[in-house]
Amino acid sequence: MSQIELTTLGKSCEFFNGKAHEKSIDENGQYIVVNSKFISSEGKSFKRTNEQMFPLYKGDIVMVMSDVPNGKALAKCFIIDKDDTYSLNQRICCIRSNKFDTKYLYYQLNRHEHFLAFNNSENQTNLRKDDILACPLIKPSMEEQQRIVSILDEAFAAIDQAKANAEQNLKNAKELFDGYLQSVFENQGDDWEEKKLGEVIKLEYGKPLDETKRKSNGKYPMYGANGIKGRTDEYYHDKKSIIVGRKGSAGEINLTENKFWPLDVTYFVTFDEKIYDLMFLYFLLSRFDLPKLAKGVKPGINRNEVYEIQALFPSLEEQQTIVRQLDTLRAKTQKLEEIYQRKIADLEELKKSMLQKAFAGEL
């Protein structure tokens, strides 16, 4: 990279803050509100308004200024693609510059390590104007910027296609297992007995656990509505079970270890082990879209509604045979999923590596 200039965002760009739109949201509005969800979804998820409080123009770069600890949206950028279409929301900034190629500046700013360094993994990150203006930038000639953009565009297009193929293969692997699972329960034998879930399982309430009893290196897992939330040296239940989210991530299901503590936002499953197999019940429950039963501002599930669900049950021996077949297929599909997930992660790392080379003068 020849004749580069080291500068900052404040010296090379104009910075603008967005405005609050919460009171002017209108699903039939003329303008798209550019907020964190809009940017993090690459423009696929959005709200509308009829009040264009801060107009955006083609070529503007917008960036997320606030996110939860370790959030993936912090400092994520988006290039505005047309005039008179968007309005900038609060906690999103707009960056304009006539000293950079727009795409080059986007590549350099998007999730810049200067911004990510403000994340302390504990509290919400709120980038201040001064933090953003102090971001260091590399400014080569316009011709060099455009050359780099051309290389990155071509490389990223190939990487994105490879990633899309890997994601489709990952989806296919998951659907293979889901399809087989569905067929197992749709092609039941004549001797399968129909029962309500309430006749087979009990959803027992979890229990709060005092903060003083929570230990990072505790012997036993502590389950919340969507999985392990920590550890403790105490246990509430001493048999392997199934956790069903009761509040929050209501309807999510997770298998437990042999001894565990279910928090008060959960149910845990008890049943007659002489008649039913735990893994069969787990696979059965995974077929039902339990989250759709959730109601309320903080979604919650009433166990009595779960109890009313009808299902068919074979003998314990046949349950165990089905579980062995499903376990074998699940092991194979999980291996495939791991391969594709690793490939997707590797492709993302390749992107990061190319960006590092681009701004180190190695392209």
Helix tally equals 9
Taken in chain order, the helices and strands follow as EHEEHEEEEEEHHEHEHEEEEEEEEHHEH
pLDDT < 50 runs, ≥5 residues? none
Tell the overall outline: elongated
Give the assembly state of these chains. single chain
Looking at the structure, the CATH topology of the largest domain is Adenine-n6-DNA-methyltransferase TaqI, Chain A, domain 2
Distance between the termini: 8 Å
**CATH architecture identity of the largest domain:** Alpha-Beta Complex
Q: Give the CATH H-level superfamily of the largest domain.
A: DNA methylase specificity domains
InterPro entries: Restrct_endonuc_typeI_TRD, Restrct_endonuc_typeI_TRD_sf, Type-I_RS_S_subunit
Protein name: Specificity determinant HsdS-like protein
Coiled coil: 152-183, 330-357
Keywords: Coiled coil, DNA-binding, Restriction system
What is this entry, summarized?
With 363 residues, this protein is of the alpha+beta class. It has helices spanning 9-12, 36-40, 102-109, 113-116, 129-133, 142-186, 278-287, 303-307, 316-358, and strands spanning 5-8, 14-17, 31-34, 47-49, 61-64, 66-67, 77-79, 86-88, 92-96, 125-126, 136-139, 193-196, 201-205, 220-224, 227-232, 242-245, 253-255, 261-262, 266-271, 310-313. The mean pLDDT is 93.
